[in-house]
Amino acid sequence: MNGLFEPTDAALVPRFAGVASFMRLPVVTDPALVDVALVGVPFDGGTTNRPGTRHGPREIRNQSSLMRRINANGVAPYDTLRVADLGDSPVNPIDLLDSLAKIEGFFTGIAAAGAIPITAGGDHLITLPILRALAAKAPVGLIHFDAHSDTNDKYFGDNPYTHGSPFRRAVEEGLLDPKRCVQIGIRGTYYHPTDFDFARAAGFRIITMDEVMDRGITEVMVETRLIIGADPVYVSFDIDSLDPAIAVGTGTPEIGGFTAREAQRMLRSLTGLNIIGADVVEVSPPFDPSGLTALTGATMMFELLCAIAGGKN
Ligand code: MN
Ligand code: MN
């Protein structure tokens, strides 16, 4: 045995049958047995408006049964990487701070085992405790696809922890190297003219949707790779970076977003970077009556896995 895991063969067990796991892979509890851990974080306590992303991991698992084992460019991640479903991080739905501690602890175990997590959220606040675990020793770079910068400060008085603030907290805590942070697809309306001052002053490269349209995806991703370089980088994909015509099942939809094929092309262009972890967040099944947003989220997880596996992307 080489320790590799395979999805359940759809020629033997049909895709609609069996217990749902990410990509129909085995459920493994020991992170030491995997190179890449597919993980759920069913937490939406950081949501400031429409909730429901606590249901994301389960529905993404369900829709991920449509994934096959090789991507459109011939990348076959299960041939070279040990990949399995590591289950869900523990959370406490009535205690935000306890949830942050539990999530950090779960990912600390994954990092200690040397596995790379690809996580299904959950709202975007979950990226903060994940970064606390993965960047505990040294700050990392960030490639962040989102309609929003998520670098706001406080909400509802003096609350520092929401899905609108994870990357500001991560900079303050020394988890991110802000000169190696790139935000792509930003386009939401502002609260205030100063909304982006923190990110820009810190050194983030903010590439708005208008700039992506003007310059094109290929050029934008070449610049992103130059900024990130060879050092460790975390990739965070907010499903609301996509147009709500494609991914309506999310709490904070913003019109004018990416198409699914543009997102696939951007994620494929990350191949060869030193990716230490990735997530797909903000899939909210209660707003996703067709299941298409969860399917899209599952597909982005698979593309991230293929970018980590490398090959012909
Ligand atoms: Mn976000
Ligand atoms: Mn967003």
A few lines on this structure:
With 313 residues, the protein is of the alpha/beta class. It has helices spanning 56-63, 77-80, 96-112, 127-134, 166-172, 197-202, 209-215, 217-228, 260-268, 292-309, and strands at 36-40, 83-88, 116-120, 140-145, 176-186, 205-208, 233-238, 275-281.
Strand residue content: 15-25%
What's the helix count? Answer: 10
Radius of gyration: 18 Å
- Overall, the morphology is globular
User: Which homologous superfamily in CATH is the superfamily?
Assistant: Ureohydrolase domain
Which ligands occur here? manganese (II) ion
Structural domain count: 1
N- to C-terminal separation? 28 Å
Protein structure class: alpha/beta
| Sheet with most strands: strand arrangement | 2-1-3-8-7-4-5-6
The major sheet is characterized as: 8 strands, parallel
What does this entry look like structurally?
- This protein has one domain (22-312): Ureohydrolase domain (Arginase, Chain A).
- The protein has an eight-stranded parallel sheet, sandwiched between helices.
- It is built from ten helices and eight strands.
- The mean pLDDT is 97.
- The radius of gyration is 18 Å and the shape is globular.
- The protein is α/β, with parallel strands linked by helices.
- Bound molecules: manganese (II) ion (2 copies).
- One manganese (II) ion binds at residues 146-148, 238, 240, 252, 282.
